[in-house]
Amino acid sequence: MSTNGTPRTPQIAIIGAGMSGLCMAAKLKLAGIESFTIYEKADSLGGTWRDNNYPGLTCDVPSRFYQFRFAPNPDWSQWFSAGDEIWRYFDKVADDLDIRRHVELGREVTAAHFQNGRWELDFADGRSASADFLVSACGILRIPRYPEIDGLDSFTGAVFHSARWDHDVPLDGKRIAVVGTGSTGAQIVSGLAGVAGEVKLFQRSAQWILPMFNPRVSSLTRWLHRRFPALDRVAYDSLRAGAHRVAPALTAPGPKRSAIQAICRLHLRTVRDPALRAALTPDYQPMCKRLVASSAFYKAIQRDDVALVTDGIERIEPAGIVTTDGTLHEVDVIALATGFDAHAFMRPMQLTGNDGLTLTEAWKDGPRAYLTVALPGFPNFFTLMGPHSPVGNYSLTEIAETQADHVLAWIERWRAGQLDTVAPTEDATTRFNADMRAAMPGTVWSTGCSSWYLGADGVPELWPWTPDRHRAMLSQPRLEDYEIHSTERVATPAA
Ligand code: NAP
Question: Rounded to the nearest whole angstrom, what is the distance from the C-alpha of residue 336 to the centroid of ligand 1?
Fold first, then answer.
């Protein structure tokens, strides 16, 4: 509170105008806080939904659960919506809540350092800014991972990563190689089957696939959702409750895990050819890697114009891909569905906290945070979708809301004059991370497979407990776990 009793006005810098950055902005707006700026490196909003626009892109989380609770959309066209529809949704949220005027596009933050109680930001264009709070909303799967394959540069056709799809390249009737069998590769193959002349999927590891029926939403249902907005809340809550019933399957062995694994195994039996089915059978438990959800993939891979290649990639030549058996697979286009650097978080941005502590030093043993959102030694800094956030197959919009609510609560305490700076203690962060590591052996991600879920030490960088526990811990933070400084303490911080 300022000396005249009115709330102080914090300057807040948000990095990234993707789903989580927009969520943070919306929460500030809804709390009546206008003094924030979103710095976005690209030339439009939308983050992952802007960058990913490959054929077949569909979010495998139900749309009525993959939306902000405060911004229901009655008009979803399908249960699981296509990428461009989701991108338009986030764009509309930005317009409806008048967020766009807070966004500065083409502003890449290269460095941020904490100095004299404030964050000083440097941009790639040489400009600078400062803020009381810094919120990183850079996303998790942002930096494409390109495979190291000999001769990749020599290919004379078109080659691009799935998150950098070149829409100028014609696909009709073309021979297309898809490298990688994660959620992205499976969706691309399903999207291209019957469009391209021939699709070859280069599989290094087989994937378990959960069937995902995707009915259209009737115009009557959409009308009902427009007419009775409470229906949307009911749909959201029941989908959320369903997700919460399923979530323990990931974190502890038991009948739920067995049931989902049985569904995946039954689904695989829909592949009729025993040799193809054997080639598509993973050598690890379902859900160990991030589960792929699709009812289209097994149908697509059984088509005559789609082929599965399981021999390893030896090299790439100007005309195509040479596999370890010596075969040259001549293709016109290579789509690299080879995933992302899931451990970069806000890097390569240089972050420097108290006493010159750099993020590189703080994370020399791997990314870690307190309660997924805050870092010891980095006051008034928060990250959304940070290390160990509950990602997986759960709704990230819900996680972003939980984290943004937590950040907002600290900003509200600052506004009320209860603190000037806040950061978690080193002890609390060490304890929290030790507890998480202790819980990992029971998780399905630790059952023996390689995946982007695992850190350099082989330990999953996911949330090993229920989503409810995440919300509970973030909504009731233990104040003794924080270093809180205030020059003129007016009131005691309230949890
Ligand atoms: P990914 O799950 O990391 O899969 C990458 C694939 O590329 C794997 O099959 C990997 O094989 C393969 N690969 C990597 N390097 C290779 C190389 N040098 N040679 C041959 N194969 C190589 O990446 P993603 O499919 O892009 O998905 C990433 C995440 O994005 C998903 O797990 C999900 O969280 C999210 N996503 C979500 C949706 C959705 O609908 N919600 C859709 C797409 C993506 P190995 O398995 O052998 O390493």
Answer: 9
Question: Residues 108-160: pLDDT tens digits?
Answer: 999 999 999 999 999 999 999 999 999 999 999 999 999 999 999 999 999 99
CA dist 411 and 409 (Å) reads: 5
End-to-end C-alpha distance for the chain, whole angstroms: 17
* CB distance 363 to 404 below 8 Å: no
Q: Do the beta carbons of residue 121 and residue 134 sit within 8 Å?
A: yes
Say which residue the tokens 């941020």 belong to.
Answer: 112
- Residue 1 in any domain: the answer is no
Query: Ligand 1 pocket check: which of 152, 184, 399 to mutate, most ligand atoms within 8 Å of Cβ?
Result: 184
For residue 318, what pLDDT band results from cuts at 50, 70 and 90? very high
70: containing domain:
12-143+341-485
pTM of the model: 0.96
Q: Which CATH number belongs to the domain containing residue 331 in this structure?
A: 3.50.50.60
Distance 99 CA to ligand 1 centre (A): 32
- Asked if residue 174 and residue 104 are part of one domain, the reply reads no
* Cβ of 184 below 6 Å from ligand 1: yes
Handedness of CA 87, 91, 92, 94 (dihedral sign): positive
Is 323 near ligand 1, meaning CB less than 6 Å away?
A: no
- Is residue 404 packed enough to be buried (19+ CB in 10 Å), middle (13-18) or exposed (0-12)? buried
- Tens of pLDDT, residue by residue over 1-50, are 655 678 899 999 999 999 999 999 999 999 999 999 999 999 999 999 99
